[in-house]
């Protein structure tokens, strides 16, 4: 079938084109995309920090409505509302142990441009292959995806808000719920109050953490952090972050979440911890980190862990997050800005300059919640 998609190439970031999308195989689903979040990971492909074969259709926070299902699909049917998550194989040791975020095939399945069948369902009208991204390529009007990408959600929730649950929001909250697993009353610090950081912070509030400290360089984002659950905020341009955190917590924080990828911030996320504290980082960055292992880690018996996609299984965590959203515990609508399909360059720029925390592209203007 023919679809409209935003194609990324080496010459241009986004060009609206007509593409040909393969019909779903027996284990695949055709989804009409309603909306797609814009994530920092998309931006890292544009600057080739994370290389993806060009041309490609990016977008990996899609939400939409099932249009057609393959003959082997039993989890969804046409008309169901779904969120699209990342691709995972489902049969490696980590997947079988319930850590799809640690799938041993994560990189090829999400960044190599092909699906689990070793092909891409996207093609130009003259037959040239176009890379699929994260098994979905949601910057398009339709997507053909594998069953592992599909998460069924309630029809009474506005689909336009739900796409980011498939990556950024799942990453931040899952890192807290699944990887850090803080005890009630634990002190928690988040470095960077973008969508991932704020999601981690809201998860820390649900988990019963106290105090909850938000660190950023934008006062406007810190104000929103207060509204969403931060008990303290620190503008790192104006204060000594480590000293301030230790003043607030007395001994240092129990847990920290680093989302920026800035080496100096990563060091702060370690140095602010108490003895036996744990820091998690989910960031993608280009700069190397120089660290003194004894002074920064061993001396206080600290743990620094990298977390992919919140150590989450999308089919388990996303329905929980949607319930939190419905009952007011996860008010992501307060950090969302909507953009039309053709405004994608503006949306990326607003995300880069900090004026939009979570931009979401509307692909289907006819959708009514």
TrEMBL record:
Taxonomic lineage from the root: Bacteria, Bacillati, Bacillota, Bacilli, Bacillales
Residue span(s) of domain Enoyl reductase (ER): 10-361
Sequence similarity: Belongs to the zinc-containing alcohol dehydrogenase family.
Keyword Zinc: yes
Classification via InterPro entries: ADH-like_C, ADH-like_N, ADH_Zn_CS, ER, GroES-like_sf, NAD(P)-bd_dom_sf
Keyword match Manganese: no
Name of the protein described by the UniProt record: Aryl-alcohol dehydrogenase
Record Gene3D superfamilies: Medium-chain alcohol dehydrogenases, catalytic domain (3.90.180.10), NAD(P)-binding Rossmann-like Domain (3.40.50.720)
Cofactor dependency: Zn(2+)
Assigned keywords, A-Z: Metal-binding, Oxidoreductase, Zinc
GO terms assigned for molecular function: oxidoreductase activity; zinc ion binding
């Amino acid at each position: 079938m023919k679809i409209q998609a935003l194609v990324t190439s080496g010459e241009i970031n986004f060009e609206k084109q007509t593409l040909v999308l393969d019909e779903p195989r027996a284990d695949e689903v055709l989804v009409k995309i309603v909306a797609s979040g814009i994530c920092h990971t998309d931006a890292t492909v544009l600057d080739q920090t994370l290389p993806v074969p060009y041309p490609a259709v990016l977008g990996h926070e899609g939400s939409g409505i099932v249009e057609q299902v393959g003959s082997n699909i039993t989890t969804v049917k046409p008309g169901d509302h779904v969120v699209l998550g990342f691709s995972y194989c489902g049969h490696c040791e980590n997947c079988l142990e319930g850590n799809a975020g640690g799938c041993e095939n994560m990189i090829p399945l999400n960044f190599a441009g092909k699906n689990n069948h070793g092909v891409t369902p996207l093609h130009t009208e003259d037959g040239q292959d176009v890379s699929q991204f994260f098994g979905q390529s949601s910057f398009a009007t339709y997507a053909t995806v594998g069953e592992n990408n599909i998460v069924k959600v309630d029809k009474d929730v506005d689909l336009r808000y739900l796409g980011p649950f498939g990556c950024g929001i799942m990453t931040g909250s899952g890192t807290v719920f699944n990887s850090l697993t803080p005890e009630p009353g634990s002190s928690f610090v988040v470095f960077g109050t973008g969508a991932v950081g704020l999601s981690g912070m809201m998860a820390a509030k649900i988990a019963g953490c106290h105090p909850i400290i938000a660190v950023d360089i934008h006062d406007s984002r810190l104000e929103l952090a207060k509204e969403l659950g931060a008990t303290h905020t620190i503008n790192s341009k104006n204060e000594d972050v480590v000293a301030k955190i230790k003043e607030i917590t007395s001994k240092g924080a129990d847990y920290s979440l680093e989302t920026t990828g800035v080496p100096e911030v990563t060091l702060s996320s370690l140095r602010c911890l108490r003895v036996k504290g744990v820091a998690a980082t989910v960031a993608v960055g280009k700069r190397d980190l120089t660290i003194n292992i004894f002074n920064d880690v061993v001396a206080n018996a600290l743990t620094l862990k990298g977390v992919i996609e919140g150590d989450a299984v999308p089919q388990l965590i996303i329905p929980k997050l949607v319930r939190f959203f419905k009952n007011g515990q996860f008010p992501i609508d307060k950090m969302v800005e909507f953009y039309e399909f053709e405004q994608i360059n503006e949306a990326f720029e607003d995300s880069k300059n900090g004026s939009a925390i979570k931009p979401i592209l509307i692909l289907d203007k006819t959708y009514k919640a």
